[in-house]
Q: What sequence folds into this?
């Protein structure tokens, strides 16, 4: 709009990177590794995801089968590679959806205040009071038999589980901002509500929300895995890691690597996102509680 | 007695190493009061804490010693250090509320201390001592107070408790870190009196750290000035105030607005301390008007200029021989505006309660207290009206009511003759005419918006100019508030507090309002910055003719700016009239109290009052609002009947039962015309 | 004053539970469409469905059904489980009792597991020990709880065969066997809770240790042990309690996974089975109870903070 010169965006981000804590860099590196895995995996996997008879069932770790062979004869390592992108996509989509819904509700509720806010608070509180796993299971049930097993269901369930908690966070952040003088100044001036939310509330809540987003995304793979493990998530033969852990669970005494393989890979993804999230929080000057559920 | 040698302390921060104290050296003789003054971030608190042998966990002692009668406190083993603390050196913190453990009773904390240091033998004796000492520092009802928790006491009382504990063991030295900064002006005055009293009684030496020179003028024997971690000047107090050698010291002194009405215009401080851009030589170089090029390269060391006076500036000879230009304040002309301008804003019998948002509260039918009662005054076109009072007096509430955030419960507010509606019902034009500037510069700007965005939002809202006009106007307004155009691309966190307030003012001005509501806009700023903003406001009014409601708790500030001033106490106006009249008898008793509390410049202007003689009565809901604290209380009539307004010949109004003639003569103070002296006759 | 605050808290908690019951009811009986079909399956006969509808009063308007159910619950009548045709009260309480014992064991294990590292971290802030512990906490927290359970299983059942693989307990199990059965599931829960709380505890303890008044106490010359015990610790109790109470809220959902992995016959596995077998009344009750635990844990945290804080005791009107 104007001829004002601004500090270059690239130089600011470079300085940010340099000042970031080591854990952040490790997390980002791991994350990049996972993304590579997800994108390249299916093409380099030695066997197909549903290919049976690749080796002796329950034969344990070997060079040909780094994560062993499950009881139907499928190579677990290949399945893990195929399953990588599923987890990432579902996690991101679900968390993003939850973030959008949650922040809108939270910001609006804080700004409008009054009776609307009181009611919204009660509703949010009610949803949050249902333990997240239970809420997810409830949502799975409520979706009915038609949607069962669909990946889209996972996205919706994650969004439902996260949205209330994010809304609570967004509302708290917005409440803190709304009381600050510059918002009052905008109100006195005559700025419209939407303008205030857009220009005053959202940008200042953005860093909190961004950290929230990162943290929740970190936990989403575990959540999806949990649903898969319990049998309520993605259905076989999809190579979803949690599902694989459940399927191979009975083999754990004989061939634990079939469980630990997908399990530790899942854990490493969560670690990667958590480290990144925590580092992000540090950079943005906030504290991140990665264990908030 | 105490000798600080070459003290150098570094802090490890996220953005690198910060040198909080840089080769600081000075001595403190027994029973001497040394003031240490500097802006925020000058390192004075770090030095103060080092005197107790304390270096923060995130800091590192690079080198240096603190010698107490020969012993280096910084190298003592913990047990010996603990023995010295409290017993040989006492400490009074800046924030008394945070300094007392919230879960323990104040008496208990005192007892623990004296038992630890062996001042008394038994708990019984300790308790008795606690009661005695609390009485000594002027705390009311010590028998009951010892059983209270810290949060049940007022700020002033908490600080007295801290002082009592600091002197409990009769230490040789007292270190005070901005002990009165968080307190009301009146409370501040009383605490300073207490300190002076204790000093003369027990012969305690003190290191008094503050950013407020006016306070030091009353209590300090010598004063050291710190800048960017370095001690740049040290001298006897009277010497420093009359003829300082370092440009920074001179700038500081010039900035202090005093009751006297004259401001030393020359050489005010400009700019702010930017730690990242310090030159290799003198740290003050970027802000110095007296520098020569070599100052930037050559580190300045303290040179002895005369007896007891040392300056760290190579140009001191040139500076000391200059005469200080004392310009008679254009502030005088500010105050002598035309007598009766047309009323722009008029309040009649306005009463306001405190707004509670909660639905629950309304459901439970809580009755709200009246924060402002039956208020009547007006603001004329182009007039600056000041409102002075302590915290809780309701002055901010009035501003909020005028802005529309609160609606009065009773009474009538008019703007240009028409009733002023609630905020929701106001037209855009009306909103434009009444602008608000807030107290806290940190919260009044959107941290995510650059300065030019903050300024252009109101512009676009009210005037819908095209881009070029908008740019032009933004540039122009920045100039008007004395900020360079390059500031437009900055974010608020790149500005100092004073600069942020200027932007906030610019934001208000850009709307070309009829009246600006200034709600304690100077309170959060360092004393040195306040002066420049006051000047700016005066200039703005001259140039644009905008009216202002200027709210403050500081009378001295108001004097330079306002045409008319009202004094508020607990929601009621007790005095109102032309500002100069406020500083001359007759005074309302509360105005008198306020005036006595202003740390005036020259030491001889104030005689000390007995410290513990505050008579407070329980406040009643009828009668005079000030009855519970009034030193001229006349008995039942004050408690039961609302006092009438009494008018002086010049139109000044005072609300008191005491007739004006008595107020004028008996037991009051006066300030003569050139405003240089307060002559007090106090019982 | 305090009475008013307390009653306000209770009221809010009750309202929240009420809202939860509405949500649960809606999710289970209203959303999935025809309840009878979803329970009995698509291939069930119309007569069977009609009978079920009669039994569950499904022909009446939703609000009416909700109020009926709610009224029943408040009077102690929790309904009949569809799958076993027994009154829910009969099946429920033994399971709840089991889960309570499991939770109790978890809490006992959790306290030292959480506090010791947090204290160590707070005292050696920013030094190597702190970094190491922080990183390991983060790594451990990233392991999904079901995986953690399985790993523990592998270690203590496969690698070092010390404990039984399944923690099935019945009325006749001996005390010793009970303990052995509890150990793995309780430890899993305890580790998850300790990791969950560890960060918050560390931050709280640091805040307590670095509070202004602690510095002041030191500057007054009080010996270190006094500063810690008399001035710091009392202020640490409340945030610790707070964190712990919030942790208890995890248990309500955590038992679900853990009981499944170890086969422990508790409340969690009851809920899973209910959902698997589409046992509508049982689902409603179990979810409601899980939420009630959450709400109560929060309430407990609030009350503890309220009662222990001298400032809040005389809170604003």
A:
């Amino acid at each position: 709009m104007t001829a004002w010169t601004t500090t270059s965006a690239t130089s600011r981000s470079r300085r940010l990177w340099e000042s970031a804590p080591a854990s952040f860099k490790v997390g980002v590196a791991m994350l990049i590794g996972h993304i590579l895995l997800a994108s390249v995996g299916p093409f380099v996997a030695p066997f197909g995801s549903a290919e049976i008879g690749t080796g002796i069932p329950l034969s344990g770790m070997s060079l040909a089968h780094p994560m062993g062979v499950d009881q139907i004869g499928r190579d677990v390592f290949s399945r893990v590679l195929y399953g990588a992108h599923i987890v990432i996509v579902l996690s991101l989509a679900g968390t993003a959806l939850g973030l959008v819904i949650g922040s809108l509700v939270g910001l609006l509720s804080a700004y409008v205040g009054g009776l609307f806010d009181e009611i919204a608070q009660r509703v949010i509180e009610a949803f949050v009071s249902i333990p997240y796993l239970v809420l997810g299971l409830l949502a799975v049930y409520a979706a009915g038999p038609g949607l069962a097993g669909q990946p889209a269901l996972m996205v919706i369930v994650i969004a439902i589980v996260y949205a209330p908690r994010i809304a609570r966070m967004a509302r708290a952040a917005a409440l803190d901002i709304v009381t600050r003088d510059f918002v009052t100044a905008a109100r006195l001036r005559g700025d419209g509500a939407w303008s205030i939310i857009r220009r005053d509330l959202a940008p200042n809540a953005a860093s909190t929300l961004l950290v929230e987003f990162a943290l929740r995304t970190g936990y989403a793979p575990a959540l999806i895995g949990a649903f898969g493990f319990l049998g309520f998530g993605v259905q076989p033969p999809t190579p979803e890691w949690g599902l694989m852990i459940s399927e191979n669970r009975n083999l754990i005494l004989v061939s634990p690597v079939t469980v630990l393989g997908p399990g530790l890979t899942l854990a490493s993804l969560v670690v990667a996102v958590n480290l990144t999230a925590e580092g992000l929080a540090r950079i943005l000057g906030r504290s991140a509680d990665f264990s908030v559920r | 007695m105490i000798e600080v040698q070459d003290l150098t302390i570094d802090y490890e921060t996220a953005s690198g190493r910060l040198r909080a104290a840089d080769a600081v050296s000075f001595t403190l003789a027994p029973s001497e009061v040394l003031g240490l003054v500097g802006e925020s971030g000058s390192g004075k608190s770090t030095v103060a804490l080092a005197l107790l042998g304390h270096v923060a966990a995130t800091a590192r002692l690079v080198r240096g010693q603190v010698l107490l009668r020969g012993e280096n406190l910084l190298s003592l083993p913990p047990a010996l250090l603990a023995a010295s603390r409290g017993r040989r050196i006492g400490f009074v913190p800046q924030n008394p509320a945070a300094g007392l453990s919230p879960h323990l009773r104040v008496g208990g904390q005192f007892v623990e201390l004296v038992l630890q240091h062996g001042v008394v033998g038994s708990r019984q004796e300790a308790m008795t001592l606690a009661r005695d000492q609390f009485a000594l520092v002027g705390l009311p009802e010590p028998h009951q107070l010892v059983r209270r928790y810290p949060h049940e006491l007022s700020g002033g009382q908490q600080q007295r408790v801290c002082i009592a504990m600091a002197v409990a063991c009769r230490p040789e030295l007292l270190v005070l870190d901005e002990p009165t900064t968080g307190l009301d002006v009146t409370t501040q005055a009383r605490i300073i009196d207490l300190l002076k009293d204790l000093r003369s009684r027990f012969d305690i030496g003190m290191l008094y750290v503050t950013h407020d020179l006016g306070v030091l003028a009353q209590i300090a024997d010598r004063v050291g000035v710190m800048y960017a971690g370095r001690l740049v000047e040290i001298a006897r107090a009277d010497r420093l105030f009359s003829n300082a050698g370092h440009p920074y010291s001179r700038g500081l002194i010039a900035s202090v607005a005093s009751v006297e009405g004259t401001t030393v215009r020359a050489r005010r401080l400009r700019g702010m301390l930017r730690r990242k851009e310090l030159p290799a030589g003198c740290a003050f170089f970027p802000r110095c008007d007296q520098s020569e090029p070599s100052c930037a390269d050559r580190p300045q060391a303290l040179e002895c200029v005369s007896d007891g006076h040392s300056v760290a500036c190579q140009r001191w000879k040139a500076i000391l021989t200059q005469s200080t230009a004392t310009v008679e304040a254009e502030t005088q002309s500010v105050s002598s505006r035309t007598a009766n301008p047309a009323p722009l804003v008029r309040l009649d019998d306005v009463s306001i309660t405190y707004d509670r948002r909660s639905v629950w509260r309304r459901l439970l039918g809580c009755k709200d207290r009246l924060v402002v009662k039956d208020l009547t005054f007006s603001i004329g076109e182009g007039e600056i009206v000041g409102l002075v009072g302590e915290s809780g007096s309701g002055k901010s509430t009035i501003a909020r009511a005028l802005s529309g955030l609160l609606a009065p419960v009773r009474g009538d507010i008019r703007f240009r003759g028409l009733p002023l509606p609630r905020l929701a019902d106001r037209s855009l034009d009306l909103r434009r005419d009444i602008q608000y500037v807030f107290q806290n510069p940190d919260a009044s700007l959107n941290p995510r918006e650059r300065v030019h965005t903050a300024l252009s939002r109101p512009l676009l809202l009210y005037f819908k100019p095209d881009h070029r006009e908008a740019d032009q106007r933004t540039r122009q307004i920045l100039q008007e508030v004395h900020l360079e155009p390059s500031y437009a691309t900055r974010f608020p966190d790149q500005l100092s507090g004073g600069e942020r307030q200027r932007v906030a003012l610019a934001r208000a001005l850009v709307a070309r309002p009829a009246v600006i509501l200034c709600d304690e806009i100077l309170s959060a700023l360092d004393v040195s910055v306040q002066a420049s903003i006051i000047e700016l406001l005066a200039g703005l009014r001259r140039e644009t003719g905008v009216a202002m409601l200027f709210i403050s708790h500081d009378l001295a500030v108001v004097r330079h700016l306002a045409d008319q001033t009202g004094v508020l106490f607990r929601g009621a106006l007790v005095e109102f009239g032309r500002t100069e009249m406020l500083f001359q008898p007759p005074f309302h008793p509360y105005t008198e109290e306020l005036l006595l509390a202003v740390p005036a410049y020259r030491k001889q202007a104030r005689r000390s009052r007995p410290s513990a003689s505050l008579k407070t009565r329980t406040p009643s809901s009828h009668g005079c609002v000030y009855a519970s604290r009034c030193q001229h209380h006349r008995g039942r009539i004050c408690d039961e009947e609302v006092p009438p307004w009494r008018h002086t010949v010049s139109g000044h109004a005072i609300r008191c039962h005491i007739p004006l003639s008595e107020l004028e003569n008996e037991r009051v103070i006066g300030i003569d015309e050139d405003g240089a002296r307060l002559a007090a006759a106090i019982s | 004053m305090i009475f008013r605050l307390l009653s306000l808290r209770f009221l809010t908690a009750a309202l929240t539970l009420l809202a939860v019951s509405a949500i649960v009811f809606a999710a289970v009986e209203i959303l999935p469409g025809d309840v009878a079909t979803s329970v009995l399956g698509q291939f069930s006969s119309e007569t069977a469905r009609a009978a079920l509808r009669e039994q569950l009063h499904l022909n009446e308007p939703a609000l009416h059904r909700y109020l009926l159910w709610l009224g029943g619950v408040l009077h102690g009548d929790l309904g009949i489980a569809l799958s076993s045709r027994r009154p829910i009260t009969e099946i429920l309480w033994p399971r709840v009792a089991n889960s309570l014992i499991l939770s109790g064991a978890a809490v006992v294990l959790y306290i030292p597991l959480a506090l010791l590292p947090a204290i160590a971290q707070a005292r050696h802030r920013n030094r190597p020990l702190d970094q190491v512990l922080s990183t390991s906490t983060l790594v451990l927290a990233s392991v999904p709880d079901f995986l953690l359970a399985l790993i523990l299983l592998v270690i203590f059942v496969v690698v070092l065969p010390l404990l039984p693989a399944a923690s099935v307990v019945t009325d006749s199990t001996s005390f010793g066997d009970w303990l052995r059965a509890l150990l793995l599931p309780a430890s899993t829960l305890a580790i998850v809770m300790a990791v969950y709380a560890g960060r918050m505890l560390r931050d709280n303890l640091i805040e307590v240790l670095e509070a202004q008044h602690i510095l002041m106490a030191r500057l007054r010359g009080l010996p270190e042990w006094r500063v810690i015990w008399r001035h710091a610790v009392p202020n640490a109790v409340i945030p610790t309690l707070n964190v712990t109470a919030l942790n208890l809220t995890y248990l309500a959902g955590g038992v679900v996974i853990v009981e499944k992995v170890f086969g422990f016959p508790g409340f969690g596995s009851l809920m899973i089975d209910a959902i698997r077998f589409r046992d509508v009344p049982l689902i409603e009750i179990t979810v409601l109870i899980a939420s009630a635990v959450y709400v109560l844990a929060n309430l407990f945290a609030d009350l503890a903070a309220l009662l222990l804080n001298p400032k809040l005791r005389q809170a604003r009107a």
